[in-house]
Amino acid sequence: MHDITLSRFLIEAQREQQSLSADLRQLLEVVARACTAIAVAVNKGDLAGVLGSAGSGNVQGEVQKKLDVISNDILLAANEWGGHLAAMASEEMEHPHPIPHRYPKGEYLLLFDPLDGSSNIDVNVSIGTIFSVLRCPAGSAADEQAFLQNGRQQVCAGYALYGPTTLLVLTLGQGVHVFTLDRETCTFHLTQKNLRIPEDTQEYAINASNARHWEAPVQRYIAELQAGKDGVRGKDFNMRWVGSMVADVHRILSRGGIFLYPKDTKDAGKAGKLRLMYEANPMAFLVEQAGGAASDGRRDILDIAPETLHQRVAVVLGARHEVERVAAYHLS
Ligand code: AHM
Ligand code: MG
Q1: What is the pTM of this model?
Q2: Residue whose CA is closest, atom 12 of ligand 1?
Q3: What is the domain extent for residue 48?
């Protein structure tokens, strides 16, 4: 399997899968190359002067790190000239980035969180890039409205994980596959096919410091997990929280588990912390493709009709039976 590069995998998928066009294949190759460039910057760290704050803020009101800005610039520069895209949108930009007039325009829309897990950049903990690809509606101006499609419309989604190894995890709507970066040849190789998330688990991920702000159904669910063998669940649960969604979701795709970033009352104006279009939707697509489930507690993430590009959403994803239990607690 290791002799199958990303390029070969995509060319073979294009032959077998009518939905994978040559343009989409080339777009994914460009995204992978951009992620390789980001991985190089991440690996060099202080040697390249890329750590620390950029001294600016983004539309979310968050302080930008230098690597947030560098990663965003790498993705924009790599993707604007190829002719595959109609526009791009990013966590780091208030409005969509149109393709400059000097380049041809394509039929796809690319969304990304260029550097997920920003709080982990300066402490050498795994971080990543999350991306999602949509089709640009025919005749549309490729403006913000064009991006506001529900998650089931995604033609492809994935993430790069900059950890001890750099991985690219991808779905084209037919399973979830993992590619490992060979740093010497700068080539991604297929290393795992068709990841599956077990329906049950004994491991959960949540930022427990927010416990007092959670809604009652989440408080009940987590209290039951924490009661372990002595409570209604009758078994002990382990907890892990990396603080980079991309790393927490990768663990769940690798060995199972449930991840929650629920709505809380800390900031009544926010429906959650994570962003629907370029964090929750691509992860929900990957998780569903691996047999898991993804919900905001009340409906499947992928069925949410987006209203704005940067809207936030509560996220509960992973082991199907656990996600269903959390959803049931929200209904009762
Ligand atoms: P970011 O995209 O600015 O890095 O924010 C998203 C991150 C997720 O990766 C992670 O799950 C979450 O924020 C962690 O939040 P907290 O610091 O509240 O635990
Ligand atoms: Mg993020």
Answers
A1: 0.97
A2: 243
A3: 6-192
